[in-house]
Design brief:
The complex is a heterodimer. Chain A is α/β, with parallel strands linked by helices. Chain A is 41% helix and 11% strand. Classes of the chains: A alpha/beta, B alpha/beta. The interface between A and B is large, with 36 and 38 residues.
């Protein structure tokens, strides 16, 4: 069991009851990093974040410093947008960051905005997180009142406004261009990339950086301790720590901040301080390593380290940091159906393959699970999947505008590949064999 | 046209791409789908439309594109070409992906092609027949919706057929600026629909039917009327207004059943307004005049051409003989083709000997202004830096010009300076809106350039002045209200000319071929080709014979003369002065006072009922020739159906009458007429039939061979301030697209769309007058009084009251005295809207 002695970078205040209040935050060193950043220069802050080599914690895992560097120089206004629309099934790490340490995020937002020379930031919070919304709103008001946000912050001459926006309940808005559309007041539907890369043509067609809540929550620590200290944690390819939201058939589901690259899935699932093992002493059937969009992992993947390159190479992703564990009693067909149903339900309807394809996949899966499947349904599932995600490769190709459609392919393709016999049994038996 | 296109670095040279293994040249910024099409490779598509921003939603056009990082499936409607790009439209991966999309589109499509209007001309059907699978792998229940639902008076929506391509919704939002239809719900439940209690009441709704790639949107006037393979089609030019949109007119069994917009760059870009699209119903109307009528006592009775022609020619000859040619007058002619207008111009002057002929019905502009201001085309107007709108509400009167200008403002940075008496549909798009009191446009123009006037408008005046003087400026000029005389806008225009010498004009006269009629001399003092009676006398006398000595009367003059008993023979050439002339009392007295009235028309209008002889005329779609639009653009009209009964084209009626009066106009065919126009009319010299029939003629040829220069001969006179009557409001009366005009009223689909008689006034004025919403009011002018419902409207300037002209039940014409500069009215409550009104 590897439980490293890495510090808790962003969950350190989770046990502090008043951390969500400005007083509690300041008492534990809050807003020191902002003062430090404003005392240096945007370039210096940017350099620290680049040195930290922090990968985006939203799902795609793109290095944040590099992303900031994509902003074209000399075009303003430019915006910083915080993606707090955490909605992937099994993912609930950002919600806790928002609820328990909102000032940490706000401080990160302010520092990041300073680094990229934005004078306007938006925090977009998922509609189903009322407590997060309430606490961030309160924190923003406190920060305004304390002079951390607004005009001429701490005498630096730099000014910024932060706007809080509450989502209306669409998973797709977690996709950054759909989030931007929603922020603009339009239907939450993704834009096509190219040409609408947010760093070039984002919010109101201006250069825009969209960062995840967890990514930005790391920024104060990076500024306080230096990018090198952050990069020293984890491994070269996956630096720092990361919060994983563990759920499913484990004894201790919850969010755990672990050191990247040095901790394995087995540690996360089995270590007593983390998951504590499969519940009821059962054995593992499968686990989803990085949110519902990720292809499934099995017993043989347990010893993979929690590092982006290792998981990518093994054919899945760390994605949103949601690890969902399924024990031996889980019907893989039903599990895959549940995930597909989620994506079909959340398809925004903008592009044909996703709107029609995810729904069709759900109908076929439903048919099999309910006992009216046909033998050629497996080929049909795979061919429909192929028409959403040509080749069913990893990383996925797509006929769709955004990755939502291909996300529905992951559970279908994974489960058919691994549990074809279960499918055949459903068809033979005329229903679920796990009931 | 797209952001994508303009963001690419544009170089002078072309871009080389490899398309299916072949190197082709494309234009920089061009989309892959367009470049491929130009190279003969058609990539299937549903959501892409060349006149709208691409959205890449249907995914039908995805092809493998390699920009150097390996091939990827990308929508060819969203990706601009780039040097060295490799495109595969027929690779197995492309084909598989496209087949997949097609299958996805079909799984919920009802496949009710046999009962679908679109069947036979449906891109989805064509694509499926060509490439689709023979059988569906989808065995579940399809999506079901109530079908169809009426989303407006003329458009029906079948959501089961809809493939959610965003064409209609995009059109309504980005092209028409009427965001009344939208996607509703999400994912598989997404549908197009209207918002609750807000129908798709757009003047441009028919375009969505035309661009729908399936049969989801159908038009009530066409539903189940024909199958595409039964249709016969010719191209023509719409004459519902003077914009001159190119159309394809289609018939089945000798009935017009559908018009489609044809995409020409210079004019309509494929769009039509609903009035132009659906008014074919009037052509097919049962109420058309089909045989001549003659008066017997109080009644008009059926007659024969020979009797009616004999009666009319006898009256015309008698008038000429006993009272002189000046006792004969002709009013109307805007409905005629250029050729017909020419023949009537020649007939009037060379046979009847009168110059009192006017195609305008007192609601337009003086012809020297209309013909003599420096001209701009629609393209030039849209490409100007600043456009001054001193015009009627373009959305109401020249709808497709509104679309073009709106596009220029929204997408290309055109600045509008609106000078009007009240808010218009263009107000939201104007950089500056200046309001004048009715009758005082000239005063505002003076203040604009002299910096005088109220303090609180100085900032706006200054901004407007900077814009107008700041670069290429075009003025759209017309009558924004028929309740004031034209003098004031004319003076304002002349002021613009003198302060901005490079300014050019688009003269917004609305009615059908009014511009062609003026060009052909259907206006006093002017001969065909925009040459004055004096300047053209020599040349035209050679060709036509003796011409009238003196300049005749315009319509207002003719009606005054007739009312005073000085007109012995009055010809109504498709004119209905009782409905269209601003001053109905004068029109009524004129028709009574005229000795003998000949009417040539398609319908028995109020004015026609006053005539002594009535000839039935052929109309749009029933005759060939040319028409001239607002720019002076001459384009062709084609015949599609035969005219009903014994009705004839107007030019033949003139030649028949001429013959009986001992003249020979010398025409047997329409072609001969055009040849003479081309030979004699200075403005039309060089516009030969060959050119008009060539590809160049498809979008029409602008007649600019000659123009009189009014600017050098007219000068702005000192402006006057009209005394303000503190107890009165000034009437503003303008037209709506749907009115009580014959064409709208004879089109069953359009007639109910006329809003009717509603008086609108500023809430502050209503307060002051003690009038509340839903009250009925009595509006009285020096001419007469009417009673009508009233509504508050902040868009109506204080001190004015608006009443649409020629609405069903509208008495605006009963209030207007054509001899007064403005119409002052008193407004008082007579009772609640739901109460019986007495007195």
């Amino acid at each position: 069991m590897t439980v490293t002695d890495a510090p808790k970078l962003i969950t350190a205040r989770f046990d502090q009851d008043d951390a969500y209040l400005l007083s509690g935050y300041e008492a534990s060193g809050g807003y020191k990093a902002l003062r430090k950043a404003l005392g240096s220069s945007p370039d210096a802050v940017m350099a620290e974040v680049k040195a930290a080599n922090i990968q985006g914690r939203g799902g795609a895992g793109f290095p944040a410093g590099t992303k900031w560097g994509f902003l074209p120089p000399d075009i303003s206004p430019r915006y910083l947008v915080v993606n707090g629309d955490e909605s992937e099934p099994g993912t609930y790490k950002d919600r806790l960051l928002l609820e328990r340490d909102p000032h940490q995020l706000i401080e990160g937002v302010l520092i990041a905005a300073f680094a990229i020379a934005a004078n306007q930031a938006f925090i977009y919070i998922r509609g189903e997180m009322p407590l997060a919304h309430e606490r961030v709103a309160n924190a923003l008001n406190e920060a305004y009142a304390a002079g951390y946000i607004g005009r001429d912050i701490m005498g630096s001459g730099w000014s910024i406004d932060v706007v809080l926006h509450w989502g209306a309940g669409a998973y797709i808005v977690g996709e950054e261009t759909a989030l931007i559309e929603s922020l603009e007041g339009n239907r939450g539907m993704p834009r096509l990339k190219p040409p609408f890369f947010p760093a070039v043509k984002g919010l109101y067609m201006q250069p825009t950086i969209v960062n995840n809540v967890e990514t930005l929550s790391n920024v104060p620590w990076i500024v306080n301790n230096g990018g090198a200290a952050f990069a020293a944690l984890g491994t070269e390819e996956s630096s720092g720590t990361r919060i994983f939201a563990l759920s499913g058939h484990v004894r201790r589901p919850g969010v755990y901040e672990v050191e990247m690259g040095k901790t394995t899935f087995r540690d996360l699932i089995e270590a007593p301080v983390y998951g504590g093992g499969i519940h009821h002493g059962r054995s593992l059937k499968a686990f989803i390593p990085g949110g519902a969009s990720a292809p499934w992992f099995y017993e043989e993947h347990l010893d993979l380290p929690l590092s982006k390159p290792a998981v990518d190479k093994a054919g899945s992703m760390l994605g949103s940091g949601a690890v969902v564990v399924m024990d031996e009693t889980t019907c893989p067909v039903r599990a895959a159906l549940r995930v597909v149903r989620f994506f079909a339900h959340e398809s925004c309807g903008k592009c044909t393959p996703c709107r029609e394809g995810t729904n069709w996949l759900e109908k076929i899966m439903h048919r099999i699970e309910e006992g009216t499947g046909r033998l050629d349904d497996l080929d049909l599932l795979l061919d429909v999947s192929d028409n959403l995600s040509p080749g069913i490769t990893w990383p996925p190709k797509q006929t769709t505008i955004c990755p939502l459609g291909p996300s529905a392919v992951s559970p279908v393709a994974s489960s058919i590949k691994r549990f074809r016999d279960d499918y055949l049994a459903h068809i033979d038996h005329g229903g679920c064999t796990y009931d | 046209m797209t952001d994508i296109a303009t963001s690419e670095s544009v170089t002078e040279t072309g871009v080389s791409i490899t398309l299916n293994g072949r190197v082709i040249e494309a234009q920089p910024g061009e989309l892959v789908i367009t470049a491929a099409e130009n190279a003969g490779v058609y990539i299937p598509r549903f959501c892409h439309h060349p006149r709208m921003e691409p959205v890449g939603m249907c995914r039908m056009c995805i092809v493998e594109i390699d920009t150097g990082r390996g091939p990827a499936l990308l929508p060819s409607c969203m990706i601009p070409v780039a040097e060295g790009m490799v495109v595969e439209t027929e690779s197995p991966i492309t084909k598989k992906a496209q087949d997949g999309v097609l299958e996805f589109l079909l799984i919920n499509h009802p496949l009710d092609c046999p009962v679908c209007d679109k069947g036979g001309e449906c891109p989805l059907q064509d694509q499926t027949v060509a490439f689709g699978p023979g059988e569906s792998r989808f065995i579940e229940e399809k999506r079901h919706y109530e079908k169809p639902i009426a989303i407006s008076e003329v458009v029906q929506l079948d959501r089961e057929r809809c493939i959610l391509c965003d064409r209609c919704t995009r059109f309504s939002q980005t092209v028409a600026g009427d965001p009344l239809i939208s996607f509703v719900n999400r994912g598989n439940a997404t549908e197009v629909n209207t918002f609750p209690d807000h129908p798709f009441a757009s003047y441009f709704s028919g375009n969505t039917v035309q661009i729908c790639p399936v049969g989801a949107l159908t038009a009530t006037p066409y539903r189940f009327k024909a199958r595409p393979w039964d249709l016969d089609q010719v191209e023509s030019t719409c004459t519902s207004c003077s914009v001159g949109c190119r159309v394809a007119i289609e018939s089945s069994s000798n009935q017009l059943v559908r018009y489609l917009g044809v995409d020409v760059d210079a004019v309509n870009w494929g769009w039509l307004c609903d009035k132009g699209r659906f008014d074919f119903e009037a052509v097919n109307s049962e109420n058309r005049l089909v045989r001549p009528l003659v008066r017997e006592g109080d009644e008009l009775v059926d007659s024969t051409w020979s009797d009616a022609l004999a009666k009319a020619s006898h009256a015309l000859a008698g008038a000429k003989e006993r009272h002189g040619s000046a006792s004969i007058a002709i009013v109307g002619g805007a409905r005629l083709t250029n050729e017909e207008a020419y023949v009537w111009s020649k007939f009037a002057r060379s046979v009847l000997g009168t110059d009192s002929i006017d195609a305008q019905i007192g609601d337009g502009l003086p012809s020297d202004i209309a013909l003599g201001l420096p001209r701009a085309t629609i393209d030039e107007t849209c490409a100007a830096k600043t456009v001054v709108l001193l015009s009627p509400d373009l959305k109401e009167e020249l709808p497709v010009l509104y679309l073009r200008l709106r596009d220029a403002v929204v997408n290309h940075g055109l600045k509008l300076v609106e000078i009007s008496a009240s808010e218009t549909s263009m107000t939201p798009y104007a950089a500056v809106s200046l309001r004048y009191r009715p009758g005082e446009a000239a005063l505002l123009a003076q203040q604009l350039f002299e910096g005088s006037g109220d303090v609180d408008v100085q900032a706006d005046l200054g901004r407007a002045r900077t814009l107008i003087e700041g670069g290429s400026t075009v003025c759209v000029l017309g009558r924004s209200s028929v309740a004031e005389r034209a003098d004031s806008v004319v003076q304002a225009a002349l002021r613009l000319c003198s302060h901005v010498p490079a300014i050019r004009f688009l003269v917004a006269l609305r009615r059908a071929n009014v511009h062609g009629a003026l060009d052909m001399g259907l206006t006093p003092g002017m001969l065909p080709g925009r040459v004055s009676l004096e300047d053209g006398r020599e040349a035209f006398t050679d060709a036509w014979g003796e011409l009238p000595e003196v300049v005749g009367l315009d319509t207002t003059g003719v009606l005054h003369a007739a009312a005073e008993g000085r007109i012995q023979a009055l010809v109504l050439l498709g004119a209905d002065p009782l409905a269209d002339f601003p001053d109905r009392d004068l029109a009524r007295r004129a028709l009574v006072g005229a000795g003998f009235v000949v009417a040539i028309d398609c319908f028995e209008t109020d004015s026609v009922r006053q005539a002594d002889v009535v000839f039935p005329a052929a109309t749009y779609g029933e005759k060939t020739g040319t028409t001239t639009n607002i720019e002076g653009r001459v384009s062709r009209l084609n015949q599609k159906v035969t005219s009903p009964g014994t009705s004839r084209p107007d030019w033949m009626i003139a030649t028949e009458l001429a013959e009986r009066l001992g003249g020979d106009l010398g025409f047997e065919t329409v072609e001969e007429i055009w040849d003479e126009i081309e030979r004699l009319a200075p403005a039309h010299s060089g516009i030969t039939r060959e050119r008009l029939s060539s590809s160049e003629g498809l979008e029409g040829i602008v007649a600019n061979g000659h123009s009189p220069n009014v600017v050098t001969t007219m000068e702005a006179t000192a402006t006057v301030t009209l005394p303000v009557d503190g107890y009165s409001l000034r009437l503003v009366s303008a037209r709506k697209l749907y009115d009580n005009g014959t064409i709208v009223q004879q089109s069953p689909s359009l007639a109910p769309l006329a809003p009717g008689e509603i008086v609108r006034a500023n809430p502050a004025d209503l307060d002051r007058l003690g009038v509340t919403t839903n009250d009925r009011v009595r509006i009285a002018s020096s001419r007469g009084a009417i009673i009508a419902p009233i509504e508050p409207d902040v868009g109506v300037a204080r001190g004015t009251v608006m009443l649409a002209f020629n609405q069903p039940g509208s008495g605006a014409a009963d209030l207007i005295d054509a001899s007064l500069p403005v119409t002052e009215v008193r407004v008082e409550t007579v009772g609640r809207g739901d109460q019986e009104v007495s007195g």
